[in-house]
Amino acid sequence: MNASAELLKELRIDRNKASAPPPSGTPRRGLWIVLAIVALLVLGGIAWFLFGRERPIEVSTVPVVAIQQGTASSSVLDASGYVVARRMATVSAKITGKVREVMIEEGMRVEEGQVMATLDPIDANAQRSLSASQLEAARSQLAGLKAQVAQADAEAGRLQKLVGQQLVSRSQYDLAMAQRDSLRAQLKTAERNTRVAGDALAIAELGVDNNTVRAPFSGVVTAKAAQPGEIVSPLSAGGGFTRTGIGTIVDMDSLEIEVEVGEAFIGRVQPKMPVEATLNAYPEWKIPAEVIAIIPTADRGKATVKVRIELKVKDPRIVPEMGVRVSFLEAAAPAQAAAPKGVRVPASALVERDQKTVAFVVGDDKRVQQVPVTVGVALNNDRQVTAGLSAGEQVVNNPPPELRDGSAVVEKQPQ
Question: Which stretch is the leader sequence (predicted)?
Answer without folding.
Answer: none
